[in-house]
Specification:
Chain lengths: 118, 111
């Protein structure tokens, strides 16, 4: 499977600041996603990062709060803007292997970025 | 009603026993079903996927799918302490490759 590197792995942030998380994949992938896992909770999809176009956001997530870039097929960033303590979470980059968009793909995850907002 | 439901546990089984993890889903159009294992402080790791009704075996793991009952399960034979983790059920509906996750079942394998 693809090797997915995320950074930072963890950070402590001040309320009102923004932080950008980077996701680097060692091979070209069509589908790349950003998930959030809040403490004690399961994973929630934030958005699909589309190469060369605007990300597709899920209900409850907006571009102003979570701007995403996807300049090529191996790299994406997620920014958490104007952070509040409620944004304390693990943010996970994931990629699909197998046939994209055919419902047969298997998702693999990076190691995650654990953010704590004070 | 949650889209993907799992018993949060903990499910405690003795070493060497069979652990049975269950998951139900609400969307009858769901097509693909995945089991992830997540150790504390780590990211989810894909261990099994199943698309068709019936059983699928991979080593000590068996996934079972019953679309009529909207039920998917994971059996772990000869459970080991290293199997102690949270097991997440995930369901994919449509062709958008988006997964909906359950809240996970925490498995404890005791010596």
């Amino acid at each position: 499977s693809a090797v997915i590197s995320q950074k930072p792995s963890r950070d402590i942030c001040q309320r009102g600041t923004s932080l950008t998380i980077q996701c680097q994949v060692d091979s070209q992938v069509t589908m790349m996603f950003w998930y959030r896992q809040q403490p004690g909770q399961s994973l929630t999809l934030i958005a699909t990062a589309n190469q060369g176009s605007e990300a597709t956001y899920e209900s409850g997530f907006v571009i102003d709060k979570f701007p995403i870039s996807r300049p090529n097929l191996t790299f994406s960033t997620l920014t958490v803007s104007n952070m509040s303590p409620e944004d304390s979470s693990i943010y996970l980059c994931s990629v699909e292997e197998g046939e994209p968009g055919q419902g047969a793909g298997e998702l693999f995850f990076g190691e995650g970025s654990r953010l704590t907002v004070l | 009603q949650k889209e993907v439901e799992q018993n949060s546990g903990p499910l405690s089984v003795p070493e060497g026993a069979i652990a049975s993890l269950n998951c139900t889903y609400s969307d009858r159009g769901s097509q693909s079903f995945f089991w992830y294992r997540q150790y504390s402080g780590k990211s989810p790791e894909l261990i099994m996927f199943i698309y068709s009704n019936g059983d699928k075996e991979d080593g000590r793991f068996t996934a079972q799918l019953n679309k009529a009952s909207q039920y998917v399960s994971l059996l772990i034979r000869d459970s080991q302490p290293s199997d102690s983790a949270t097991y997440l059920c995930a369901v994919m509906t449509g062709t958008a490759s988006k997964l909906t996750f359950g809240t996970g079942t925490r498995l404890q394998v005791t010596l």
